[in-house]
What we know:
This protein is mainly alpha-helical. It has 2 domains: 90 residues, Orthogonal Bundle (Arc Repressor Mutant, subunit A); 30 residues. 64% of the residues lie in helices and 8% in strands. Helix 2 crosses helix 4, helix 2 packs across helix 5 and helix 3 crosses helix 4. It is globular. Keywords: DNA-binding, Transcription, Transcription regulation.
Amino acid sequence: MTPRIDPLTREVVDLIGSVVFRYHEEYDAAAGKHQLTGAQARVLGLLSLEPMPMRRIAEQLKCEPSNVTGIIDRLEIRGLVERRPDAADRRIKLAAATAAGKETYERLRSSLDFAREPLARLSTDERTALRDILRRMLGLET
């Protein structure tokens, strides 16, 4: 028998789902303003942090490596991403954001108001508590 979810837990889960949906909706719209799909923007975001092999990008996005290859191809044509050999293993190609790619992603990220606006209504203590709760939920406690 499946355990029954209590009403408070159900409400919290529904609210988290609403936040995630609204975030993705705004993220995809912001990506579109930079002539990017949501997937292209997510790849550019990952590569803005560090160069990585296609397989790892696919793992991060939970998709097939062949999908990532197409995304990288389109970003490379625009000069936002480049392929380079891995210094540690020359058989592996890394995808890396170019300076233009990092700049584009930073502009995209700066244009996201969804999280910034509602979070501004919370005090510093409330934002800190929310951050700590989310970290705990995700097992990222320090």
